[in-house]
Structures are given as C-alpha cells and as structure tokens.
Amino acid sequence: MDYRHPFFSKPKLAIYYVVFWLVACVANVLLQCFDFGVEPGAAIVDVVSTMLLFAIVGTSIWYVIRFSNSENKSAYRFILLHMIAGSAVVFLWLYLGIVIIKLFQPLPEYWSQKILPVRIFSGYMMYVIYVVFFYAVMYYQNFKDKVRKEGELNALIKEAELHALKSQINPHFLFNSLNSISSLTMSDPQKAQEMVINLSTLMRYSLKFNQKEKVTFGAEIENIKLYLQIEKVRFGSKLNPVFNLDENCLKAMIPNMILQPLFENAIKYGVYEATEPVDVITSCRQIDDFLEITIQNTFDPEVLHKKGEGIGLKNIRERLQILYNNPGLIKTKDLNNIFTVTLLIPQK
C-alpha cells in the first residue's frame, strides 16, 4: 500500500491543485476590490490568511484519512476521529490566519464577534470537502491498484497456460524424432547422427523464446525447414516440402513455434500412411493487417477419420485465444482429399 501523499506520487494532480487555488485566490481578490471596494492590500491579506492558508493546511488532512482505517472502526469512532482532527485543523488555520493578519494590519474589534464564527463554520465545511476529496483520491488509487494486480494475475495465468501448451508440443515431437533416430541407429548411423544434430539445433530454438515472444516468419520457416529435414530422413521421397513465400512475409512477426504442430499434422495424416510422394505446400501473403499462412497436403480420408484431429490444431486454437483473444484465426478445410489449414496472424 502506498502511503505517500497523492501530491508527491502524482505531480500532475499537485499542479492542478496549485493552479486551482491560485485562480480562486486571484478571483477573490479582484471580487473584493471591484465589487466591494476593499483596498487591494487588505484584500490580499484576507485571501492569504483564509483561502491560501487553508490550501496549505488542508493538505495534511490526507494523512488523517490514510492512516485511519475506517473499515475497522465503528461509525461512532469514525465520526469522533474526524471531529477531533477537524477541530485541530480549523484551530491551526484560524491561529495562523490571525497571526498573518496582525503582521500587516491591526485586528478590528468586531472581528471576533462577527467574522470569527463565520470562519469557524467555513473551516469545518472546508474540512468536510477535503475529506470527501481525499477519500475519492484514495478509493481511485485502490481501484487502480486492484486493476493492476488483477492484470498481473491474469498475465501469470496466461503465461502458465502457454507453458502448458508448449509442454504438449515438445514431447509429441520428441517422441516421433527419437523413434526415427532409434530406427536409424543400426541401419544408417550417419543419418542417425545427422538427425541428433538437427534435433539439438531445433530444440535449442524452441527453448530460446518463451511462449509470449514473437519471431519473424522467416526465422520460423527456417526452423520448420530444419524440422522437415529431420522428418525427411525418416520418410525419404514420400515427403516433398514446397514453399511459395512472398518476400514481404519474411519480416512479419508471428508467435514462435506455432507452425510446427501444423506440419506435424500434415506428416501424421498425409505422409505417414501414403504410398506416393506427398507435397506439403506452404504459402503466405499479406492481407491488410494480417499475415495469411496456408499449409496444404493430400490425405487419406479413412486415416483422418481413424486418428482424429489430435492436439495440434486444438493447441493452436488455444494459443490464439490466449494471445489474440480470437480462436477463429485458424481455419481448416478438406476438399478433394486435400487438407488446407489457413492461419491469420494479426500484425497490429
């Protein structure tokens, strides 16, 4: 909890406060001089000893409010506290005001009988106004702190959800890659070693960024090409990656590791069961404020029905919901045994 005076923690509020009272004091001096015929010197002394002085003394009322927890006190104690504090503030204000007046002019005889009661009443009224003002400032600060803390909590929750989604991607890919390496260890050690090196580079990339960070589309595609090299060792000529990329897309920003599940799906449903070479075609283009990424591959409808959708597409939808609050940024379509995934990534 911030116990600092709002005029110290928010200099702009202090500037508004000073400007308001200076304008009010100048207006009061002009009113007394031109409408009531008061001498300028007497009008200035009167305004300084009343309005300007209370503007200074009244700032101390903040500490009465700040250090008195009204939630833990009864209404009686709350009222008693402010009666005592208000009386102290009004007494101090009146005493200093009389001292200032006496420094410049004698105190009139009728002052104590006619003016003093009015100033006492106005002093208590000003105290009430300050109490309301500072309570409003305090509740506004508490509200902002609450909103900030809720925002931080939501960010932590989203971060945890993103890490949970990432933990679903990496084991899935590792399982396939390690199986490939295991099968090549005896038949082709050289290719097995190449896969281990590529896998190490790929995992280093995946651990380089957290799930909230974005990378360029070009960097993500280079990582995808490395992933496809690993899988091509396993599937050989059955896997044929094709890239039709607009140069303008390469510098666009996308969430890191968001494309890999799509290529995992293309291999799982299109390449794995195929007997003929399968083209996995990747294309992209800029559409207004979106980067449109399209991935196509042929598939066997019976295999797709048998295996189901898997976690890849669901994972991406959840990430898009967390990052952009829009799971509809990914769309799928299967037509004539060609499965198409279209991903829209906002650029603003």
List the helices and strands and how they pair.
Elements: H1 6-9, H2 11-35, H3 40-57, H4 61-66, H5 75-104, H6 111-187, H7 189-208, E1 214-216, H8 217-235, E2 239-245, E3 253-255, H9 260-271, E4 278-287, E5 290-298, H10 301-307, H11 311-324, E6 330-335, E7 338-346
Parallel strand pairs: 2-4
Antiparallel strand pairs: 1-3, 4-5, 5-7, 6-7
Helix pairs in contact: 2-3, 3-5, 5-6, 6-7, 6-8, 6-11, 7-8, 8-9, 9-11
Distance between the termini: 36 Å
- At the fold tier of CATH, the topology name of the largest domain is Heat Shock Protein 90
Strand order of the largest sheet: 2-4-5-7-6
Mean of the pLDDT scores?
Answer: 83
Per CATH, the superfamily of the largest domain is Histidine kinase-like ATPase, C-terminal domain
Instruction: Give the helices and strands as they follow along the chain.
Output: HHHHHHHEHEEHEEHHEE
Radius of gyration over alpha carbons?
37 Å
For the report, how would you describe the main beta sheet?
5 strands, mixed
